[in-house]
């Protein structure tokens, strides 16, 4: 009888230790996210990426450049390799309506403050972090690229150029790296 209990315990431990982590615990890349939007749409996920942006808003990318992700191109889309980000607090206006949670704005600000300061002093540096939040992506997104290389459409952010929006909950594992080694 003792062996049966031990065997049952080992089986249970094996199942719990080999079970996949929830998507919010195991970071994915921007290109993984965009290539399989149906899998991630509406879910809380974690994306490990470079934080980019400026006065028109911030976005996440795996690397530098604006050519579509290979997996996205194979699906017939010419989307930029980026996910727009935003924060939600009660009463704020977020595309596609309010989130089911409020962003931890103070934690996000604190997590990024030192890195933003360093990057602000040296343009050769970049911020890489894990961004966790709810992924939004409309099913009927139409994004095109004009002859000059600009994206626009019915996505998110400036000119509707981003195929997905991550409504941030938290940011963790922030690092400052040289742009050449980012990703």
Features:
183 residues, alpha+beta, five-stranded mixed barrel, two-stranded antiparallel ribbon, 5 helices, 7 strands, 27% helix, globular
Question: What secondary-structure arrangement, pairings included, does this model have?
Answer:
Blueprint: H1 2-18, H2 30-35, H3 37-40, E1 44-54, E2 57-61, H4 70-74, E3 83-87, H5 105-121, E4 125-136, E5 143-145, E6 151-153, E7 165-178
Structural write-up:
The chain is of the alpha+beta class and 183 residues long. The protein contains 5 helices and 7 strands. It has one domain (23-181). The chain has helices spanning 2-18, 30-35, 37-40, 70-74, 105-121, and strands at 44-54, 57-61, 83-87, 125-136, 143-145, 151-153, 165-178. It has a 5-stranded mixed beta barrel. The protein has a two-stranded antiparallel sheet with strand order 5-6. A hairpin with a 5-residue loop joins strand 5 (143-145) and strand 6. Mean pLDDT is 85; it is low at 1-23.
- For the record, the count of structural domains works out to 1
Count of strand segments: 7
| Order of strands, widest sheet | 1-2-3-7-4
Helical coverage, percent range = 25-40%
Uncertain regions: pLDDT < 50 for 5+ in a row?
A: 1-23
Structural class: alpha+beta
Shape: globular
Beta-strand fraction estimate? 25-35%
